[in-house]
Structures are given as structure tokens and as C-alpha cells.
Amino acid sequence: MTEATDLAESRELARMVVQLSERARAHFADAVAHLDVPVLLARTILLVDGQTPMRDIAGELGVDPSYVTGIADQLETRGLATRTPGRDRRIKVLALTECGHALQARVAESVESHGAFAHRLDCDQKQALRELLGILLAETDEGEAS
Amino acid sequence: MTEATDLAESRELARMVVQLSERARAHFADAVAHLDVPVLLARTILLVDGQTPMRDIAGELGVDPSYVTGIADQLETRGLATRTPGRDRRIKVLALTECGHALQARVAESVESHGAFAHRLDCDQKQALRELLGILLAETDEGEAS
DNA sequence: TATTGTTATACTCTATAACTATA
DNA sequence: TATAGTTATAGAGTATAACAATA
């Protein structure tokens, strides 16, 4: 019977995580809504550091590399970033323009002032949460081989 | 300076939650892949209890009510569930057929045997995690008013 | 008039595959 | 030949709006 209970507990936890994840997305979207940039652009602009290949940005965003082409196009069209080839000329890195830096700061600021995600957890709680999530992420890493 | 750190910590936690949520979805999809039903049907079939209005099922699935029409169609086409009107005849309730019950059991079993989501957390850890997630979910509930 | 479910349609997001240019 | 990015296209998933039946 503990097995059934364990399963139910696991399901409830999974549901909570999924729910929380959706709220985190919504929270971010709300925070940047007034900035007049699509959410994915706002997410991306936080990752642009002038040295990360587009392929790696795709990885960090969790999307296909081909998709980043469109994002980079939009960033360039809006005058927020430029593509420059790296030493390996196949590679292109995104670098923020002046406007881009300004927007990056405003995005960060908006997310912050909109109330940080884990705002009401104290230090110990955040630490505990990070550890627990870490265990679960590590667990699924291993589990994926099966 | 602690503010910047707090923000970074919140962001990291948010990232972990989102990542974990994606893995939970993938985990579920893997678990039911061999059953030859679309993931959304598998998710739905776990919710069908013979008394929940379709509108409420939409809420639990987190999709638009109109979308549930298609899901219900598929469940009926596959002989897994039937629509029956409630006492309020505007309302329709999904009820599992015999096949549907069998599949519901197999879905639950598959998810379980595929390794429960929080498998490697002990009781105390699960309890702690539930509490922390509960705080965050409650927090964003309030926060959404702003 | 308000609500449930339905229908038809349109849209958003994202991956796939074939291509180019470098290496 | 293998890899980074690009292009064009296709598909999944989902919402929207107008509608019918019922309350």
C-alpha cells in the first residue's frame, strides 16, 4: 500500500512542478509584457554575452538551432544585436548593441521588480529547494538511459 | 548586493523548475509511449471518473474547453469513453467503457513501473519538497493579482 | 441572458530536411 | 567528411469566435 501512496505522492509532486513551471513562464511573460518584445526575444537577450555561438544559445533556450536564426534576425532587425563571425568562421556569435544592452538591463530589472520567482523563500529554504530539485534533476539524468 | 544574488538564485531555481517540468512531461510520455495512445489522451484518461464535466476536465488539463471536444471524440472513437448528459443537460460527463478502465489501469501501471517521478526522495524529502513548492504556488497565487 | 459543449478556422511555436560556407 | 548556420516548409498543439441547446 505504501507503493500506491508513493505513486500518488510522486504524481502530486509532478503536478506541482509542472504547475509551478507554467507560472514561472507566465510570471516572466508578465514581467516583460510592457517592454514590447516577444517573450522569446526577452529570454534570449538575457543570454547574449558576445561570445556564445548561436548553437549554444539554442541549447540554453532548449530549441532547435535552426530556430535561433529567426530569433537572431529579429534581434538584428530591432537593432538589439549583431551577428559577428568567430575565429572559426562557421561560428557566429551574437553581441548586443547599445540598444541591446539597455534592453537587457531593462528586462533584468523588470523581472526583478515584478517580484523574483522565489521571493518569499528565505535563504535556507532556497538552499533546501535547490538541493531537492538537484536530486531530481540528477535522478532523471540517470534514468534517461533506461 | 544581496539583492542581485537573490535575483540570480531565483532565476536559477526557476530554471530548475522549468527543466524538471519538461523532464516530468518527457517521463510521462516515455512511460505511455508503448500504449499507442497520444499523450494527451493518456493524461485525460487518468482524469475521467464518470462525474466530471468536460469543462472541468479542460481546467485540469490546462487547455481550452473547446479543445476537450476533440479529445472526447477520440476517446469515443477508440471506444474508451462515452459522453453522457448530467442532470443539467447542458453538461456532459465522460465515463470510461470497459476498455477505458483497462487502459486507465495500464496507464497508471506504466507510469508507476517506469519509475515514479520522485522515486529517489525519501519521505522526509518529499514532504519538504511539497511544502516548499506549496509556498511558491501560494505565493504566485497572491502575486497574480498585482 | 448566461452557460455547456460544438464547429470551423486560424495562429503560434517548433522541428525537419535540404542547402551553403567553412573546416 | 563533418559542422555552423540558413532557408523553406510542414506539423503539432492550441486558442478564438460564432453557434446550438439548455438553463
Would you give an account of this structure?
The structure is a homodimer of 146-residue chains. In chain A, strand 1 and strand 2 form a beta hairpin. Chain A starts with a helix and ends with a helix. In chain A, helix 1 (2-32) crosses helix 5 and helix 3 crosses helix 4 (65-77). In chain A, 27% of the residues are buried. A two-stranded antiparallel ribbon of chain A has the order 1-2. The longest helix of chain A has 31 residues, at 2-32. Chain A has helices at residues 2-32, 39-47, 54-61, 65-77, 98-113, 123-143; strands at 81-85, 92-96. Chain A is mainly α and 146 residues long. Chain A has six helices and two strands. At the A-B interface, helix 1, helix 5 and helix 6 of A face helix 1, helix 5 and helix 6 of B.
What is the topology, as strand order, of the major beta sheet of chain A? 1-2
- The proportion of residues forming helix of chain A, as a percent range, comes to 55-70%
**Terminus-to-terminus distance of chain A:** 26 Å
Beta-strand content bin of chain A: 5-15%
Features of this protein?
homodimer; 146 residues; mainly alpha; two-stranded antiparallel ribbon; 6 helices; 2 strands; DNA-binding
Write the layout of secondary structure elements.
The structure is a homodimer of 146-residue chains.
Chain A: H1 2-32, H2 39-47, H3 54-61, H4 65-77, E1 81-85, E2 92-96, H5 98-113, H6 123-143
Antiparallel strand pairs in A: 1-2
Helix pairs in contact in A: 1-5, 3-4
Chain A binds a DNA duplex (23 and 23 nucleotides) through residues 40, 53-55, 63-69, 72, 83, 85, 88-92.
